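User: Structure please.
Assistant: Input sequence and predicted structure:
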Amino acid sequence: MIAPLPAIDVVIIGINVRSYLAECIASIRAADYPQELLTITYVDGGSGDSSVAIAREACIRVIELNDPHPTPGRGRNAGLFVSDAPFVQFMDADTLLDRNWLRSALPHFTDKIVAVCGKRSERRPDMNNFHIIASVEWHYEQGPCRYFGGDFLARREPLAAAGGFDDLLIAGEEPDFSARLRHDDWVIQRIAAAMTLHDLNMTTFRQYWKRAFRSGHAYAEVGLRYLTTSERLWTRELVRVTVTALLPLLSVILGTLFRQPLLGLLLALIVALKPLLRIPRVMKYYKISFGTAFLYTLHTAFVVYPQFLGVLRYLVTRCGGAPLRNRGQRLPDRSSPEKSP
């Protein structure tokens, strides 16, 4: 344990999170850690609901970005650069901090370790198929790892010295920042301790599709950024999504060209459902039932298609198209005299 216990700034980011924010703050205040050493900051990306009012009622520090196009990196940077504690705990507003996390994580810091992350779990893992899939996805191996996610405890000074998160990325800012930190010889450590409870709150196929689309966009934007470096972050994921999504289409096209449409369709179906052959390995690796493994592998077989569309959307941007942006609070038009205060 680092002695004496250090001060920690807890940075929460969110947009329209009135359903979560009060509980998130309460979980931090219930942590097994001296409250006088914790400073909580809520960074609002541009909410149209009562999120800011809830944060102010909780008597924590509030930063309002009022951003029409917010990004997670912009929010985290706002909290990072206002911080003055030696450690910063980053959280999304839809998560709850485990009571023992801070004391569990601190002993793992050494002179070379810049960040420690633990286990994120779903609050309602059996709510529906989307939540079951997410529960499997939160499984990571322990030890030195390539990158942290949205929740982690880190040394503040190295993060600030590295310039913080890329605030233009709409997704994938954590792996990108992790790669830059590791390039400077820092180590990111993942431990088995419980860290946060997350609420995916996904109930529709449209939400599922949008999440997959954005992940594909991130694979392309971040993967192409590191394509010519030794890091090659997300290059494998980018190639996998592209090849897996295109092969069935290519099979259908070739079958049509060679006047064997049924054969082409059969080959396309075999390629598309190939991930199902991994069910026994998935069951063993994740220690899950056959039904859960079947659902998860079916997800991996399908998810590449919205992800590939996300890849194509980023390529449109690279070719001069408008960039994909998040939507935050709509600001008043200051260019029109009648709308000026």
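Residues 8-203 form a domain with the Spore Coat Polysaccharide Biosynthesis Protein SpsA; Chain A fold (CATH 3.90.550.10).
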